[in-house]
Amino acid sequence: MSSIIGIIKSTRPHQWTKNAFVFAAVVFAPKLSDPQAILQSIYAFILFSLGAGAVYLINDLRDIEKDRVHPKKKNRPIASGQVSTGTATIAAIVLIVVSLGGSAWMAPEFGGIMLFYLVLNILYSFYLKHEVILDVIIIAVGYVLRVEAGGIVIDVPVSNYLRLCTFLLALLLALGKRRHELVLVEDAANHRRILKEYSPELLDHMMGLTTASILVSYALYTQDPSGIGGRNQLIWTVPFVIYGIFRYLYLIHKKEMGGDPAEILFQDWRMSANIVIWLLIAIGLIYFSPVG
What we know:
By secondary structure, the chain is an all-alpha fold. It folds into 2 domains: 1-158, UbiA prenyltransferase (Tetracycline Repressor, domain 2); 159-292. Helix content is 71%, strand content 0%. It has 14 helices and no strands. It has helices at 2-10, 24-28, 35-62, 64-68, 77-80, 85-106, 108-126, 134-153, 160-184, 188-191, 200-221, 238-254, 261-267, 269-288. Helix 7 packs antiparallel against helix 8. The chain starts with a helix and ends with a helix.
């Protein structure tokens, strides 16, 4: 039982919120009134969670020696010995097989996306996380793959604007995490080698450019009827997006948060409320406003 709990902890359930991006297509298609589409999206969410869990297990196996000398990571199940390397390896293989097999069974294209996601993230764990700039781009691409998979399983095309907004938002989150680690984690560069290639000033410049790009891209997306069910009233949601992004920057710079996007989502009630309000208004405008 202890090993099973350790395996579950090692798959980082609190990080599964990232996989909610598979629901973007069903919301903006719009397909929320289609129970089958919702069910397919839920299946995709589960499969991505299993695939991501396998990647986390592989990452912990890869970094087991480093984690054992880290003040916090030494308590991870694999580093602490709660889960043996053999058990973790078998669990990772099982999760890979299930996520790949399940996604391919749902749709061959989904299987291809899952395979690409797994290969890309395994390469990231071993090599690409040490490549400056490329490291954060790969993280952002992972979010786009989730959105793409969400469109495939419900058989609707994903708007290029949705792809772009997703990529830029994920890029901002990745840059924010790098900045948090660099500024607040003691001796951070020795725990994460790539941080030696960044500086707070460089990351602030990158985040400024990314923030502006997000706002422009989202504003343009709200005026793209082909991507939101023939409706362009989403322009009224732009203030909520601006508030959310500015709130995120505020939390990073003034409240020393940002090391984990899930932390901000669950610990800052203003951010959580803003996201819920934005989503409810967006759904109302997409599903109940006049077409055109």
